[in-house]
Amino acid sequence: MSAEIELRVNGVKHKVEAQPDRMLLGVLRDELGLTGSKYGCGEGQCGACTVVLDGRAVRSCRMALADCADKPITTIEGLEHDGKLHPLQQAFLDAGALQCGYCTPGMIMSSYALLAKRHFPTRQEMIQAMEGNVCRCGTYQRILAAISQAANAQKAGAT
Amino acid sequence: MTRIAKRPQHLSDDCESDLNSGESLLSEPERYELREEPRYRFEVDRRDFLKTLGGGIVVCLVAGVAKAQRPARRGGGGRGGRGRSTPQELQAWLHINESGEVTACTGKVEIGQNIRTSLTQAVAEELRLPPARIRLIMADTDLVPYDFGTAGSMTTRMMSPQLRKAAATLRDLLLDLGAKELSVDRGTLAVSDGKVSHAATNRALSFGELAKKAQLTKKVSGDVALTPPAEWKTAGTSLPKVDGAAIVTGRHEYASDVRRPGMLFGKVLRPESLHAKLVSVDLEKAKALPGVTVVHDGDFVGVAAPTLHTAEQALAAVTAKWKTETTVSDAQLFEDLKKSDDRDNGGAGFGGRSNYSRGKIADGMKAADHKLQATYTISYIAHVPLEPRATVAEWNDGKLTVWTGTQMPFRVRNQLAQAFGLADEKVRVIVPDMGSGYGGKHTGEAAVEAARLAKAAGKPVKLNWTRQEEFTWGYFRPAGLIEVSAGVRKDGTITAWEFHNYNSGGSAIRPLYEIPHQRVAFHPSDGPLRPGSYRALAATANHFARESHLDDLAHAAGIDPLALRLKNLTDERLRAVLEAAAKKFGWGPQNKPSPGRGFGLACGSEKGSYVATCAEVSIDSRTGKVHVVRAVTAFECGAIINPDHLTNQCEGAVMMGLGGALFEAIRFDEDKIRNPKLSLYRVPRFADLPVLETVLVDRKDLPSVGAGETPIVAIAPAVGNAIFHATGKRLTSMPMVPRGLKI
């Protein structure tokens, strides 16, 4: 049975007519046209579909719509403001922390949730927070460098 | 039990014919890369592309102009000549418009190796133009010259010089035009920043102004001097990824992101086993669902529906009976590979090219103080590109357009043309920069399937494979069994080397060590799973066996592994990377690992580039967990075009290589893949990350060659040697520690 569900994505409200057990990723990509979140495995193992839901990094491929209703959702499309990249996006570019880039939106969203909680995560905390995200091209070292750079940039921006 | 054909069994006859055509998927994997396919012969001036770009100057780099002017040596019947009087191969083209913006076209595909950036640098260098004013059109078969595919590390070696030649020719042309317009001697003009300028009179004309005046199309043979690497200003620098901003914002459209008006979503019915024939199928329930198109064509059964959810429901409503065939399971794999070696074919055919013999093994063994024998095994592994195969297919007035992720757009065009009985020009394949491939996307399965569904539905159809489909219906890096026996003298001189590779492949099978008595052979076999290309092909397997065995020889002779290698090496380039890696790592008696840790090194060469890796591992004696703490890689691939991207490739290759070295393996029983999911198939993650250090050896005196593959070949043996160093245990299987190390 489909129902009307309200999603709050990147500050915009969307009414979606869908089965409550449908997964968020498909709705973001196919209904709302937000294709920045990627399908990689469908079982919450690769992190390519990561979005931030109510402040938490979640795997949108395993997140039923019913559990997302009326909660703030941030996707990769929501990070850039007025043409200005988010410090994390800039840091990924500066650190050259990507090759094919397919994992990058998910990597950035996981990092985003981490930095919201821990302004200066240790290397071990970063690894722990990012362990669910796979970069098959193997740019992990650069991604850690990018997160550190963004942490510093956020601090500089805050003071 | 039957020997099975290693390809999908579910396509209709016309689809199968494409899979069975000349370049069969059943064949030995190296064939994907190393064989040159017949080139197309375009009539340059017929291409609509040249009209659609509007005014300006087009430079077409055409091979064969010079040859065609000579009398034909073999008459008119040569391959590809087909009686035409002036066969010409269009290799590259460049366009400059009236605003001075340059468009370069290439059939190569961006898969994360950053060639969109490095090729832009190559063009920018020769045109003395800022990279921001250059746009690359890649891998759109309607717009770019024929290209055999993105494989074999050929882009930097072949495509980059071709684009540079076209760009250098365009620069020359602009100089000629400038000289004419300014009525000065061309030697007094300079080209920089998109302008041709005359210093003496302080006059300049922009490329755009010159292009506006010229309006011409010029075919050139590319017989032009290129800027030597020592004088490079744009090439040779770490230009950031040119389309990086589109990726970090999520704006870049991968093939899986493409949407078309009225598009449906497709699903394909997969057999319940790897090797199955469709016996019967009931489609009635699926057909009854609103808006659903159902296709049954031979063994192919698929559906298309307005939403993916409906397509999944429709597919679930299909009931089918399959006749299952079985083959060996992974438990019998290695025994089977050796048994099924086609010995009659060992010295001929493809395998024969890898075979090499010099001296007499018996003589070499006689001269040895230590003789060692070992057998190594290599498991099947999966590429696991994070973006599974994906396609949107659309038919318009009998013309088929597909957006798909493949490393071989023209080959997929060919597959589609054959599958649907179309002329090549009725098929357009567009490959958006893709979610990588690592050699795993040389084929067009999803494209053929989506096109079949779209044809039936009369609407565009998107077909994105699931991870499970990607794991099951793609192809694998071949498994292999390698037998090595060798002899070494007390002083470390290797006297004999016999090396047999069953099934995994012939890449880099010959040692670069100076060994007087050698016998090296690749024995193609008939393995149970569908084999295909993989990053560096069998070079990884062959280096693993060779460099592990070298370490054992060093140990037997009581000689340091680095010293043993240097003693038997004359290749200066290999010595240089080995010494560079060892130096950076701090290899030597002064540096001893702490308890529970070990050091190992390995080196090698493939596709014209050279690599050495030193690794430090730690082993948890309680859990048996092996962690690579540090890996130092030295790499040399001629003149470096982009140092940061090259470092990135080296780091990434080492990281990916750790998976195959330590834990990646496809597990299968007689008719199924047992671990077709990321929760069951472990790939390297953040916690596996060593401290990665890279030393680039820049040889500006040597031509640039590719770097996407070779840096992967040394990590597995370096890690194995480090484990041996720490524990005295020689691990001979890749992966080495899928369940940890029992000490």
Protein described:
The complex is a heterodimer of chains A (159) and B (743). Chain A has five helices and five strands; from the N terminus they run E-E-H-E-E-E-H-H-H-H. Chain A is α+β, with helices and mostly antiparallel strands and 159 residues long. The termini of chain A are far apart. Chain B is α/β, with parallel strands linked by helices. Helices cover 29% and strands 23% of the residues of chain B. The radius of gyration of chain B is 27 Å and the shape is flat. The chains are: A alpha+beta (159), B alpha/beta (743).
What is the strand and helix layout of this fold?
The complex is a heterodimer of chains A (159) and B (743).
Chain A: E1 3-9, E2 12-18, H1 24-31, E3 50-53, E4 56-59, E5 72-74, H2 87-94, H3 104-117, H4 123-130, H5 140-158
Parallel strand pairs in A: 1-5
Antiparallel strand pairs in A: 1-2, 3-4, 3-5
Helix pairs in contact in A: 2-5
Chain B: H1 13-20, H2 31-34, H3 48-52, E1 57-63, H4 65-69, E2 89-96, E3 102-106, H5 115-127, E4 134-138, H6 154-182, E5 189-192, E6 195-198, E7 203-206, H7 207-214, E8 216-220, H8 244-248, E9 264-268, E10 276-282, H9 284-287, E11 293-297, E12 300-305, H10 308-316, E13 319-324, H11 333-339, H12 349-352, E14 356-358, H13 361-366, E15 370-378, E16 390-396, E17 399-404, H14 409-420, E18 427-430, H15 445-457, E19 461-464, H16 467-473, E20 480-488, E21 494-502, E22 517-523, H17 539-557, H18 561-568, H19 572-585, E23 597-606, E24 609-619, E25 626-636, H20 643-662, E26 691-697, H21 715-727, E27 733-734
Parallel strand pairs in B: 1-8, 3-4, 9-19, 15-27, 17-18, 21-22, 25-26
Antiparallel strand pairs in B: 1-2, 2-3, 5-6, 6-7, 9-12, 10-13, 11-12, 14-22, 15-20, 16-17, 16-19, 20-21, 23-24, 24-25
